[in-house]
Specification:
Radius of gyration: 15 Å
Distance between the termini: 28 Å
Strand content: 15-25%
Structural class: alpha/beta
Number of strands: 7
Low-confidence stretches: 124-132
Strand order of the largest sheet: 3-2-1-4-5
Number of helices: 7
Length: 149
Amino acid sequence: MTQPFRLALIAHDQKKDDMVAFARNYERLLAPCDIVATGTTGGLIQAACPSLKITRVKSGPLGGDQQIGALIAEGRIDGLIFFVDPLSPLPHDVDVKALMRLASVYDIPMALNRATAEVLVQKRGLLRDDAAENTLTAPRVLSDTQRSQ
């Protein structure tokens, strides 16, 4: 049996409605995923999409971004969708940059806006195991030894 895709969902305050709309539009594709989300974002998505299984961590500014970063470093997140608001100042900008750096270091797919997130879930090129099943599945994980070769 294929392991469910482990997806992290995060949205800045001005992008939370966009994230909820995205989750609603792709609820069928996201339903088989194990989703981890920051506090408020996860609560809003859960209320709008009750079929989704969501584990909530703390709010981003209270350490939720760092908690998700730790999950990425532990190999427990397969992809990240982070709707960033580039026009608002962020008091926890350092945490946001650290999270994006970890996604890059551990080579997991990362979407920072809706257009890229839609490619991630629609186009099969990144995550789909079988287009006929319309589900996301976890990619093969490389060990640290394999990664360094």
